[in-house]
Amino acid sequence: MLSLLLLLLLLPGSPAAPGMEDAAFPHMGESSQPLPWACPLRCSCPRADMVDCDGLDLRVFPNNITRAAQHLSLQNNQLQELPYNELSRLSDLRTLNLHNNLISSEGLPDEAFESLTRLQHIYVAHNKLSVAPQFLPRSLRVADLAANQVTEIFPLTFGEKPALRSVYLHNNQLSNAGLPPDAFHGSEAITTLSLSNNQLSYLPPSLPPSLERLHLQNNLITKVPRGALSRQTHLRELYLQHNQLTDSGLEATTFSKLHRLEYLDLSHNQLAAVPAGLPRTLAVLHLGRNRIHQVDADRLRGARGLRYLLLQHNSLGAAGLPAGVLRPLRGLHTLHVYGNGLERVPLALPRRLRSLVLPHNRVAVLGARDLTSTPGLAELNLAYNHLASARVHRRAFRSLRALRSLDLTGNQLTRLPSGLPNGLHTLRLQRNQLRALEPEPLAGLDQLRELSLAHNRLRVGDIGPGTWHELQALQVLDLSHNELSFVPPDLPEALEELHLQSNRIGHVGPEAFLSTPGLRALFLRANRLHMTSIAPEAFLGLVHLQVVDTTGNPEQVLVQLPPTAPRRPRAWGP
Question: Which helix (H) or strand (E) holds 219?
Answer without folding.
Answer: none
